[in-house]
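We give the chain.
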Amino acid sequence: MTNFMRNSHSLPDTMIEELIAPSRIQFYGSKWNNIGTKASLRHQISEITGIDSEVLSGVSPSTRTVAQRMSWASKRSTSRVEDTAYSLMGLFNVFMPMLYGEGDRAFIRLQEAIMKQSEDYTIFAWQSTRPGTQPRGIFASSPAEFQNIVHKGKKQAIAQYLTPLHEIPIPAALTSRGLYVALPLFRMEAVEEPAPGAQDISLPSLGSFNFFRHTPSQGMYLALICHVIPVGESKDQLLCIWLRMRNVRGIFTRAFTQSVAIVPKQQAELFTMQNIYAQSAASTGI
C-alpha cells in the first residue's frame, strides 16, 4: 500500500522504482481512504512525477531516452548524495559498486556505466542549474540538470541522430584523456554566450553565419545530440550542445551549460562526424 500525496514537490529515493516496477499498485490517502490504482491514476501520477504515462501502463522504460528517464528523477531527494545515483541503477539496467563517501562522483560513474552499454547521446543534453560560465565536463552533475530538457506536450526527443553521409559512429569509450566519442560537429568561429536559462535557441542558418554577436571564441563547436520532434508540427529539429576545445591536447569541455540549441533538421548536412576526447567531469583535472 502506498500513500499518494498530490502536492508533493520531491520524491523519496525509491519512489520512481516503486511506481514503475509493480504491475498493480493501490493508493491510499493519509486517512487510509482508497484513492485509486496505478492504472486509474496513471495520468495524474505522470503529471506530478513526470514519469511517462505509457511506462506507468507497462511499457518498458528502456524505450525512453536516457534524458527522459533522468528527468523522472530530477526532483528526487535522498538522505545521502550517493543514493541519487545508486537508486537509479535499476532504471538504466546497469551495475556498479556502491562506494559511500565518493559524493557527487557516484553520479558521474553512473553516467559512465550507462555509456558503456548505450549509444543514446541524449545523456549529454542537460542544462546546468548552477550560476556562472565556467567550463564543465560533458556529464551532468545530478539528475536535476535534466529537469527542463523534456518539453511536455511540445517536443519529444528521440535517441537517434543524423550522421554525415550515413556514417556509422564508433561507440564511446572511457580513456585516460576522458570520454572518446564520435559526434557530428559544426565549427563556430564566433559566438557569444546565450542568455542564462535559455532552453531553445533557434538558429535559422549555419554556414558562415556568426551567431548572436561577433565575439571571437576559438575552438567553439556545436555538437548534434539527437532529433527533436515538435508535437503538431511537420518539421523535425535537432538538439545540440556547445563544446569548446580547451587546450593543446584537443580535449573538449561543455560550454554555455545553462542552454541547449535547437537547429533545423536540414542543417544536419553541414555537420561533420569527428572523433573527440571529452572531459567527463569538471573535477578530473584534465
Residues 2-146 form one domain. Residues 57 and 279 are 38 Å apart (CA to CA).
